[in-house]
Amino acid sequence: MLVLLGRMLACLLLAAPWRAHAAPAPLPQVQVLSYHDIRDDVAGAEDADPYAIDSQHFAAHLEWLDAHGFHPISLSQLIDASAGIATLPERPVLLTFDDGLRSTYTRAFPLLRAYGFPALVAVVTDWVDLPAERHIDYGPRAFGREDFLTWAQLREMRDSGLVEIASHTHDLHHGVRANPQGNSTPAAVTRVYDPATHRYEDTTRYERRIHDDLARSRDLIARHTGRAPRAVVWPYAAYSRSINRIAETLGMRVSFDLEGARTTVGADLHGLARLLVTRNPGLTELVPELYAEPPAQNLRALQIDLDAVYDADPAQQERNLGRLLERVRAIAPHYVFLQAFADPDGNGSADALYFPNRFLPMRADLYNRVAWQLRTRTGVEVFGWLPVLGFEPPDPGVRQALAIHTTEAGAVFRLDFTRPEAQRLIRGIYEDLAANSYLHGLLFHDDAYLRDHELPQLFPGQPAARTQALIDFTLSLRDAAERWRPKLKTVANLYALPVLAPRSQAWFAQDLAAFNRAYDHSALMAMPWMERAPRPRRWMDALVEAVKRHDPTLHKTLFELQTFDWNTGRPIPEATLAEQMLRLQSQGVRHMAWYPYDFNGDHPSLPVARALMSSDAFPYEER
Length: 623
Fold this sequence. Notes:
single chain; alpha/beta; 29 strands; 36% helix
């Protein structure tokens, strides 16, 4: 049955539509599998160590790959294919083993030799030949000398010609203090906070720490195995462009993460996707993972005001955070869009920031604390929510010199992004957020607009070009942040009027089709009460139909719904919210978010929020 399933899936995978004209040859793709411990006594999928794989299951994985036309490749083949001097075989797969556990030698290596399969073994050099008195906290129990590889075993595997040794760093496989509150985050991507001096590592000291650690790992591997590593596997798949550049200078031009099942082999071999093999899968669980594309999700998101967590009283602030975590964990959305700027006067622009930075006052060192707690305690992906132009420099002269001058009454204060000084300031803020914080993506605030009389020198009379100029600037902000946080997803706020009345693009410099091309999702502010629509339901129906003209499958557009009527000062009734969301679902809308989510005031209430905004399928699992 498995053979038949494999052949059917292979036919589907290899089939390609006929094209009338020759297209450039696609870049090859390789499947990379990430293993850790191979044991004989794994207690099924519920073993205390989720990364441990039963020896018989591992053997079955190799047998299946061998029988179904997969071709395990070496790191050398991967590098040569990247350089264009070799061609990869069909269905290439690279086997990797992390952490340098003894079972790589005692259980995996004999099977690799039996099948002739090459592999990459990434070792934490501080754990190799571990002294007898030392133990490492390795999840389910403390691991000692007998649990880790020795240099003699690594040399034997290396000399076989099948195994190449990679660095898993020397001593970065742990957390370090990340903020005043004491959160511990991966050492390779964290500027260490010193509570004695109330300071963070500066960039120079941070990069020197990473360089020295990686250089020590490289030198130990070269000395003991006869060859320096050409690849680094960053612990916890936590890395940045900055430290990948450091790895490059030390001869390691290949690195990996743990996102996705397949990776494209191009000139850049950093951040290659790997499939993390967990929960002891048999063939029935592993085979679909090898072939399947990630399923499309109907996304749910909550947009959270960090101003509502902040309190001058630290004890009250912790109570606010606890309430937020409790509710987000119970609701279980996919994403949280978390405010990273302070707007206490509610004018839409940032007076201060919630993270250390070089440009604006820091109201409190709070964003990283809340973002990391949300990620680790609730499982959601956190997007940093920042203005694009709406930053208020503390110096009145600078503020006036860099401002967009407008005749619009009550307009949000914005900086002129065509000015180099403003560009440096805003890009620097995004870079500082990423350097000092956890984030999965960025939400660009609704201040990214231009009225037709503003910046008249910028593509006069060309609304589409003005729109693209704003989009290009936001993408440069993403690029600045990605120096420290790679592969960031992007979502951008979009007003409803340019969708309902496309001619109004000139009044906003916004366009749904252009946004959907540029970002992972467009967060359309589907807020009839904010727009003072006399018939909110009819207004929303018209908006859905207008969106479908640009996004027929509704895969790209996220409908951001209001839970509060700012005109009346009252919350939107829960029954109205429920009816609105169900109606949108019946019209094919896939992605929805709420703003604001008032976790302190419990609106919408927890049972309603969970029923409408949970990522869990009905009936909702207890958490």
